[in-house]
Every structure is written in C-alpha cells, then in structure tokens.
Fold this sequence. Notes:
alpha/beta; 7 strands; globular; seven-stranded mixed β-sheet; single chain
Amino acid sequence: xxxxxxxxxxxxxxxxxxxxxxxxxxxxxxxxxxxxxxxxxxxxxxxxxxxxxxxxxxxxxxxxxxxxxxxxxxxxxxxxxxxxxxxxxxxxxxxxxxxxxxxxxxxxxxxxxxxxxxxxxxxxxxxxxxxxxxxxxxxxxxxxxxxxxxxxxxxxxxxxxxxxxxxxxxxxxxxxxxxxxxxxxxxxxxxxxxxxxxxxxxxxxxxxxxxxxxxxxxxxxxxxxxxxxxxxxxxxxx
Length: 238
C-alpha cells in the first residue's frame, strides 16, 4: 500500500528486545537479515513467488504463507522443512526471537531459498501484500494483553480480520493458537461475527486437537506445565 511508512504503527506487540545478543547473533542480524528482509518501500510483486527468486530457476510454487509473531521460529522452521515448495514470510518484531530464527537458517541453503522476513509491525506487511495472494496465515500464542484496558491491542480485531480477508485466497486458513481462554473466546467471537470467515470445527472437541504434525513450542510447553490448556482454532476464508 502506498504511504505505509507515513502512518503510525498500530503496535500490537510489546517489548522489542530482551537479553543482550551475543556477538554471533549480532553478526547474523547485520549480515543475514538484510538478505532476507522484505523491502516494503518497493511495490509488492503481483506473483509473490517472485520474492523468492535468487537468480536461479524458480523453486517456489504458487503458495506463500505467513506466520505472524513466530517467537523462536520452531514452528516456522518445521513447516518450511515440511513444505519445501512453499514460500514463507515470517514476521517477528522481537529482536531476540528473530536472532534465534536466523541461527536456525544460517548455512541452511534449502531453508534460505524459501523464507523472507519482516521485523516490524505485521499490519504494514499485510497492507503491502496484493489481494488474494496468501495461502495461509498463522498466529500462534500472540500477546494476550490480559488487562481489559489493553484489549484494543490484541491482534485479532475487526480491522485485522479485514486485512486477513483481503490477502487470503478463497478457502485459505487463518490458524490461531492460545492458552489464554479469554483470548480464545475473543477470537471465536470476532471471527464468528466477521462475514468472510467460518470456523472449520466439525466436532465439539476440535479446538483441543493440535494442528496436523504440530511440533509444539517452548512457550506452549511452559503454559501446559503451568496448567493452562491450549486451544487450536482454524478459520477458513469464504
């Protein structure tokens, strides 16, 4: 979208940095990230597979997926290895999370061929993408903003669902996972009232079942040890 730089960030994420990065992590941030980072100052290609061309014959098919807030990148790497012909765009403004993913990508030619990254506000990326260009959006364990006065900062809201609906292809999934029951209910409510999405659940227990070949995450493991039950929701773009 033209003028994306002029608008203020909607800031659905919290802090940007945690522990100080090690020297090797800083080097990857300075050398590897610029090679993979999307440049939103240039128009998005109509065919998103072009984002992954590297001078060789195209190796990415028509499907490009997004994971917003990938944390340490465990699930993103898992899916990249499962689907080597799919292009992936990972969004993570938390510097330490990006550093972990870059460590898993360094020297891995196959992975590097089908990943692009963005380290800022995901709404800027969504507004930049062409309509009906994305084969799936994943949003796992986003910041729940538990205080009522902060609920407006939850990523799932009417405006962002409009964004998802614009970029997703017909029939493409929006997948959501959380261990915070109020955010699960919030997401179900907003998606149920959005005209472009339908919950794909076919049985009452579907929300308890992890996604296919779900690898889990470190955050999820901590949540379960603390006695919180994760929910796994899939909504389909009509």
